[in-house]
């Protein structure tokens, strides 16, 4: 039996591929569990400095496995919970991971697939990709973090429209309203994602992870609270090998080697 999520490595980049192409990469219990396991594994691996989430086949992710939902019959509530007990922690870990996450949307994303697409720190899409909430069409409510992510990314009014009407959003419109980062030229998604992920992996990943946390917290903080958080984070980061490496490289007009700085920090921590 083929794994529903594949893990591949290119240097310091880990690629997580949703691998149920015959079902549009629809999320069932096995895929949600495997996705969480894969995310936990790459998050804990210090050699991984960037994570890419992508899909296999025609679709990025069709959302929930509707055939499975139908087959559950009266046990549907328990079946949904069995999926979400893994899917939702997976979304949280991607959002809060101390590493940059890139989502590569090559085809349609619906239901939970919209949340998976939107949770990337950078989300790139092919021109033929499109996005549909689709939940009320089958009498259900959103999951996968959509009701948290969409109001923050595209605003409450647009999120209301998409959730209540199930209107299909093209890749171009998704980029224009902030649901994704940008649309790439047709047929270039893999190359664009590879280049972006490799660049992020060479960056100051520790600083990027802290930046992610600051941005996520800003919506619920006062200006004073956010300034205090920024002060605490930048002063803490100022004591790291990353900042010393970056500042020295800037002054000496050369490219910084943040990967080496991370390895040195791990060695120092191991010897303490």
Summarize the helices and strands and which ones pair or pack.
Elements (H helix, E strand, L loop, with lengths): L4 E6 L2 E6 L10 H16 L5 E6 L10 H7 L3 H21 L4 E5 L3 E2 L1 H7 L3 E4 L4 E3 L13 H9 L1 H10 L3 E2 H7 L4 E2 L5 H13 L3 H14 L4 H15 L3 H11 L6 H14 L1
Parallel strand pairs: 2-3, 3-4, 4-6, 5-7, 6-9
Antiparallel strand pairs: 1-2, 7-8
Helix pairs in contact: 1-3, 4-5, 5-6, 9-10, 11-12
Short description:
With 272 residues, the protein is of the alpha/beta class. Helices cover 53% and strands 13% of the residues.
Please characterize this protein's 3D structure.
- This protein is an alpha/beta fold.
- It folds into two domains: 5-201, 2-enoyl-CoA Hydratase, Chain A, domain 1; 205-271, Lyase 2-enoyl-coa Hydratase, Chain  A, domain 2, CATH 1.10.12.
- 53% of the residues lie in helices and 13% in strands.
- It has helices at residues 29-44, 66-72, 76-96, 112-118, 146-154, 156-165, 171-177, 189-201, 205-218, 223-237, 241-251, 258-271; strands at 5-10, 13-18, 50-55, 101-105, 109-110, 122-125, 130-132, 169-170, 182-183.
- It has a six-stranded mixed beta sheet with strand order 1-2-3-4-6-9, sandwiched between helices.
- The protein is globular and about 65 Å long.
- The mean pLDDT is 95.
Q: Quote the average pLDDT.
A: 95
Characterize the main sheet.
6 strands, mixed
What is the 3D form? globular
* N-C termini distance: 44 Å
**What's the number of extended β-strand segments?**
9
Rg over C-alpha atoms, rounded to the nearest angstrom = 20 Å
* Low-pLDDT windows of residues: none
CATH top level of the largest domain?
Alpha Beta
Structural class comes to alpha/beta
Quote the beta fraction.
5-15%
Classify the helix fraction into a percent range.
Answer: 40-55%
For the record, what is the CATH homologous superfamily label of the largest domain?
2-enoyl-CoA Hydratase, Chain A, domain 1
* Count of separate DSSP helical elements: 12
For the biggest β-sheet, the strand order reads: 1-2-3-4-6-9
**Overall tally of structural domains:** 2
Look up the CATH topology of the largest domain. Answer: 2-enoyl-CoA Hydratase, Chain A, domain 1
Q: From N to C, what is the helix and strand string?
A: EEHEHHEEHEEHHEHEHHHHH
What CATH architecture of the largest domain do you see? Answer: Alpha-Beta Complex
């Amino acid at each position: 039996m083929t794994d529903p999520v594949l893990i591949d490595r290119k240097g310091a980049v880990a690629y997580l591929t949703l691998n149920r192409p015959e079902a549009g990469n629809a999320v069932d219990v096995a895929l949600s569990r495997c996705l969480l396991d894969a995310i936990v594994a790459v998050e804990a691996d210090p050699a991984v400095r960037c994570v890419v989430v992508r899909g296999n086949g025609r679709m990025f992710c069709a959302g929930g496995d509707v055939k499975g939902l139908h087959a559950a019959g009266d046990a549907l509530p328990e079946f949904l919970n069995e999926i979400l007990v893994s899917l939702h922690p997976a979304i949280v870990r991607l959002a809060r991971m101390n590493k940059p996450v890139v989502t590569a949307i090559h085809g349609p994303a619906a239901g939970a697939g919209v949340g998976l697409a939107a949770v990337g720190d950078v989300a790139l899409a092919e021109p033929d990709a499109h996005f549909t909430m689709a939940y009320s069409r089958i009498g259900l409510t959103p999951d996968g973090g959509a009701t948290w992510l969409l109001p923050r990314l595209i605003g409450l009014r647009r999120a209301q429209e998409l959730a209540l009407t199930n209107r299909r959003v093209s890749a171009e419109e998704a980029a224009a309203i902030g649901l994704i980062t940008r649309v790439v030229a047709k047929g270039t998604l893999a190359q664009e994602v590879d280049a972006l992920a490799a660049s992020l992996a060479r960056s100051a990943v520790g600083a990027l992870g802290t930046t992610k946390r600051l941005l996520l917290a800003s919506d619920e903080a006062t200006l004073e609270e956010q300034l205090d958080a920024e002060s605490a984070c930048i002063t803490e980061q100022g004591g790291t090998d990353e900042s010393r490496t970056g500042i020295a490289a800037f002054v000496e007009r050369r490219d910084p080697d943040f990967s080496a700085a991370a390895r040195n920090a791990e060695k120092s921590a191991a010897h303490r």
